[in-house]
Amino acid sequence: MGGFLLRKVGAALIVLVLASMLVFVGARAIPGDPAIALGAENRDPAVLAAIRHKYHLDEPLPEQYIHWIWLALHGDLGVDQRQLPVAHTIVTRIPITIEIALLSLLVSVVIGIPAGVIAAVRRGHPEDYFVTTGALIGLSVPHFWLGLLFIIWFAVDLHWLPASGYVGLSHPIANIEHMVMPAIVLGVGFAAVLMRQMRSSMLMSLGSDYVRTARAKGLSERSVVWRHAFRNSLITVTTLLGLQLGALISGVVITETIFGIAGFGRLTIDAVNQRDYTLIQGVVLVTAVSYVVINLLVDVVYSLLNPRIRVS
Amino acid sequence: MSAVDTAALTNPRARRRVLLRKRFLRRRMAVAGLVVVIGFVVMALFAPWLAPYPPGQVDFNSLLAPPSREHLLGTDALGRDELSRLIWGARASLQAGVLATLLALIIAWPIGMVAGYYRGWIDAVVARVTDVLLAFPFLILAVGLAAIFGPSLLNATLALGIGAAPALIRVARGETFALREEDYVPAAITNGASDRTIIFRHLFPNMTSTLLVQATVTIPAAIVGEAVLSFLGLGVQPPTPSWGTMLQDAQSYLTQAPRLAVFPGLAIVLAALAFNMLGDGLRDIFDPRTTR
After folding, report:
1. Are A23 and A281 in contact (CB under 8 A)?
2. Is the model's pLDDT at A312 over the cut of 50?
3. Closest residue in chain A to residue B124, using alpha carbons only
4. Distance CA B163, CA B216 (A)
5. Model's pTM, two decimal places?
6. A186 pLDDT exceeds 60?
7. CA–CA distance from A249 to each of A106, B71, B189, B218 (Å)?
8. A–B CB contacts, 8 A cutoff, strictly below
9. What is the mean pLDDT of chain A?
């Protein structure tokens, strides 16, 4: 187990270093002189030289990279166009995004897992067709359009829910009111993915030898389905959650934009629209790091659930 | 029995084709998907003749007009015909969907096959590189590319293609890995076949069905992706019509003209659904295990 963990962590570290290099080179590939951007109106060569020196822009790229990554490791991602520290901005925005992500995951698990089990158990029956057709539609409906429809129905027409904005957790009821639509909009698409995965791995489990043995032992159908087939299918579905993380991050960006929520996703789009390069660099780095770290965690959980993986 | 039928029954490849066509035609969902896909392709190709008005034609006398005989789906805030823009919008969507998928396949397939065939250090390097690329969700990648090259349909397509590649590399790698174990590979090696011959003449033809299925499931994802990027202002730039930019415009008129937000979305859903149905059907007919 220790060797397995070490290998996984090592691979993740390599990926992180390469990803940070990509972010750094990408940010340098953006057209425009950062010194001029930082110098605002001042084009005096002496001032620009001073700025370049201050921000280490006059050094060779590898040194700049090491300097940048050193500061980043210490939680310093530089300052944005408004002279605000990027790391601080990101830290204040992230909890909002995590709340949306967790709530939408909850929605997708609550809908997707039972639906997948039902479809597999009742394969070929009306329930199966209903669920699989629903999943196909769920896969094809873009979040952002569903978001617009929800706003038209539940906010504009029915006045049930607020159309946009965010209220902190200190006002729980208002907070949930603002979160219902984003969580459902984002969760429905994942529910479809989860359901399809759950259905196919349940079908695989139900056709396997150990299920036949369990049936032959005279176990009740409920016990066969839930204690044997369901548990094993859940393992495959956990890995899927990790792989879907990238889609989740993309989804959060869009959802926050539509519902006017000032989270991390909205920050990403704002950074690009304002061409704020330090901010873009910081946001992209944080995204890549969280993606790699969460996938590492998923791998570890997966290996705990399925001991065979550790050996291979 | 005619000569053609006899040939079809004796030639194994032709027989397989007949069998696959038969299996495909039995799947009503897949056939319906194919029909809708063809419909969208025709719409995109013949947009200038099908659209009742030019997509940019402004009519200040009918701003946000409801559906009427002149404008079947009404007009937008600039008095442009919604139906015409919808028809023209199919071009951007299909272009991005198909080109991004082609790009992803062209990047992914050779890399995946080489990694799966040679294994060893090449495979390890490829695995790390795909991990690095996967650390950037396609939207973040698109955001980065838009920042470097400026927002446009081409850059959105590039971002979608690059973003879809890592997952496809994994598929191609896994498939090559499995096919390498087939008996015909050592047989070819004994016959003195070079690696290139084995990869191109023996392994690749056996992967065409996987390739086709992956293409049909990547296209709808890319179509939705293009709409998202255009909606965020990172893809197609106005006044060029695209379903994504139409939805972006509609956002400002959700109270006055909600239909403007409904139609382009329905077009996206219909196109994506059709490709997904086609893809599911193809997967079923190529993979006998899932055949009922």
Report:
1. yes
2. no
3. A11
4. 16
5. 0.82
6. yes
7. 15, 39, 46, 19
8. 129
9. 82
Query: Complex ipTM, two decimals?
Result: 0.77
For A36, A92, A186, A255, B287, the CA distances from A101, given in Å and listed in that order, are 38, 16, 8, 10, 35
Residue A99: partners with Cβ closer than 8 Å, 6 or more residues away: A169, A179
Residues whose CB falls within 8 Å of the CB of residue B218, separated by 6 or more in sequence, listed in order: B100, B101, B104, B105, B164, B168
The conformation of residue A153, written as its DSSP 8-state character, comes to I
**Contact partners, residue B209, CB within 8 Å, separation at least 6:** B282, B286
Residue from B205, B231, B188 nearest B92 by CA: B231
Residue B212 tokens read as 């086709």
Dihedrals phi, psi of A43, to nearest 5 degrees: -110, 10
Q: What is the pLDDT of residue A40?
A: 64
- Work out the average pLDDT over A150-162: 84
Rounded mean pLDDT of B78-106?
Answer: 90
| DSSP characters over A237-298 | HHHHHHHTHHHHHHHHHHHHHHTT--SHHHHHHHHHHTT-HHHHHHHHHHHHHHHHHHHHHH
Nearest CA-CA partner of B257 in B7, B67, B27, B61? B67
Given an 8 Å threshold on Cβ–Cβ distance, is A250 in contact with B138? yes
Q: In chain B, what percentage of residues exceed pLDDT 90? A: 16
Q: Residue A306 in 3-state DSSP?
A: coil
Cβ-defined contact of A15 to B132 (cutoff 8 Å):
yes
- Determine the average pLDDT of the residues in A189-199: 87
Amino acid at A201: S
At residue A24, the pLDDT reads 86
Which of A53-57, A83-87, B131-135 has the lowest average pLDDT? Answer: A53-57
Q: Which two tokens stand for residue A306?
A: 């399925």
Is A254 close to B228, i.e. CB distance below 8 A?
A: yes
Phi-psi region of A165 (alpha: psi -120 to 50; beta: other; left: phi over 0): left
Cβ count within 10 A of residue B174: 14
Residue (of A145, A170, A150) closest to A160 by Cα position: A150
Q: Using pLDDT thresholds of 50, 70 and 90, give the confidence band for residue B38.
A: very high
Residues with Cβ within 8 Å of A15's Cβ and at least 6 positions away in sequence, in order, are A292, B128, B131, B132, B135
Q: Which among B101, B85, B146, B213 is positioned nearest to A273, based on CA atoms? A: B146
Residue of A124, A139, A272 with shortest CB distance to B146: A272
Tens digits of per-residue pLDDT, A246-259? Answer: 778 888 888 898 88
Instruction: Examine the pLDDT at B291 and tell me if it is beyond 70.
Output: no
Q: Which of B143, B148, B229, B245 to mutate to test the interface with A (most CBs of A within 10 A)?
A: B143
